[in-house]
Design goal:
133 residues, alpha+beta, 3 helices
Amino acid sequence: MMRVHILLPLCLGLLASGCGSMPTLPDVSNLPGLRPYRINVQQGNSLTQEMVAKLKVGMTRSQVRFVLGTPMVQDAFHADRWDYVYRFTEGHKPAQSRRLTIVFEDDKLLRLEGDVVARPASADAPAPTGPQP
C-alpha cells in the first residue's frame, strides 16, 4: 500500500512535466510557395444569368422552383419572398457571393431583386441594371 502512495504521485508528476517541455513546431505559413491546400467550397443554389433569364413575371411558385431549385431561405414571416444565396470560395481566392430575392403576389412572380441579372437577348443590347420588373 505504501508503494501506491509513492508511485502514483511520482507517475502523475512525470506525466505533467512532460506536457510543459514539448517543442513547438516551426511556423511554415510564411515560407514562399508552401501553403496548405484548401478545397473549393460551394454553398447554396448555383445562380446563372441563363437561369434568371428564364424567369418571367407571372410565373407560378412551382415554375420558379423548377427553374432555380428550392430556395435557401423561406421566411415564415414573409411567405411571399424567397431568397436564393450562392457562395463560392476557390482555394485561397476571395469568396464570390450572389444573391437573388424572388417576390410573389397572389402566388405569381412579381419581381426579382439582387445582384444576378438576366443576360441580354443580343450582344448589342445593354445589360439591365437594378431590380428587374
